[in-house]
Amino acid sequence: MGPVRPCGTHRLTVPADRAGERLDRFLPEAVPGISRARAQRLIEEGNVRLGEAVVRPSTRLKGGESLTVVVPPPVPLELVAEDLPIRLLYEDAHLLVVDKPAGMVVHPAPGHSRGTLVNALLARADTLSGIGGVSRPGIVHRLDRDTSGILVVARTDAAHGVLSARFSAHAMDRRYRGIVFGRPPFEAGTVATRIGRHPVHRKKMAVLPAGGREAVTHYRRLETFGAFSLLEFLLSTGRTHQVRVHCAHLGCPIVGDDVYGKSRKIPLGKGPSARTVSVSRFLLHAFHLAFPHPVTGEELSFTIPDPPEFADFRAAVAAAP
Q1: What is the DSSP string of 58-115?
Q2: Three-state DSSP class for 161?
Q3: Residue range(s) defining the domain that contains residue 41
């Protein structure tokens, strides 16, 4: 196929001897300069097409197909240290554990070059792991912008490698709490599906009948108040938007999740005295994280209380007519 430049539009023909191979394994060899993770992102963002068809990373090649691959040019990001309010729960020479506030993006990206957790970390830590790339120093895993709670950040590449492997092996104890509409079908249960990019709305994730990646969430109902419930979640996998997608799949979307659920203006009460309360974020919180230290092996465990938005919403429900 000859050498090609990473950025730009590439039109490829799949050799017959690559029949049966996954698309996301074929692309890094066909387009030098992109990794498998980058190939998967290109596919999920709709930048890879098989004729006119939308494809998935797991699409199996037949040989002889024509592929169009668009690799956008990198967007330069200037990382700036910013003195932003974040709370450190733990710090040593190898890692930091952070309580991320709701509303803060984890790392810079187009449209969010300032005000991120990375910008805040650069003002607090003299060294951060470089494995995640130039725009993601130290970032081992992420929380959605509106999700508050606990994140572990790597200060060294060695710590990053161990922590990433443990996340991949589902060997981290990660627990969330969320307030949802209604109540789940059982007091406790497990949601096991496959989650992947929505076939139409490419910025959303969806439960898929086939393809995607395995996603497993364990839940239990802690309390029901009014038309809402407080749930606790234990994650066995860590897919993008997993808890939010699984709650919507159960018919109990997270309160304030206007992507997978309902409006952030929530009607309370009935009759002429009914009123509406607005929430500024979706009510999901990563309250617990436990794992062995990547260097010493010491068991580390962190638990933080629910954010004030939870109590504010409960009070609004209690005051409703």
Answers
A1: TPBP-SS-EEEEEEPPP------------EEEEE-SSEEEEEEPTT--SS-BTTBSSS
A2: helix
A3: 8-71
Indicate which CATH number applies to the domain containing 208: 3.30.2350.10
Full-model pTM = 0.76
- C-alpha pair distances (Å), 130 with each of 21, 98, 99: 31, 18, 21
Confirm whether 78 is domain-assigned.
no
Let me know whether 142 and 200 are in one domain: no
For 279, the token pair is 């929430």
Task: Report the alpha-carbon angle 146-111-45, nearest 5.
Answer: 85
Match 């929505």 to its residue by tokens: 198
Of residues 24, 144, 146, 257, which has the active-site annotation?
144
Burial per residue of 148-173, b for 16 or more beta-carbon CB atoms within 10 angstroms, e otherwise:
bbbbbbbbbeebbebbbebbeeeebe
The yes-or-no answer on residue 144 being catalytic is yes
Tell me the mean pLDDT per 10 residues along the chain, length 321.
Answer: 58 90 88 77 86 84 90 68 92 96 86 84 85 75 95 93 90 97 96 92 88 94 96 95 97 97 90 87 98 97 98 93 77
Contact 21, 60 (CB under 8 A): yes
Task: Give Rg (Cα) of the chain.
Answer: 22
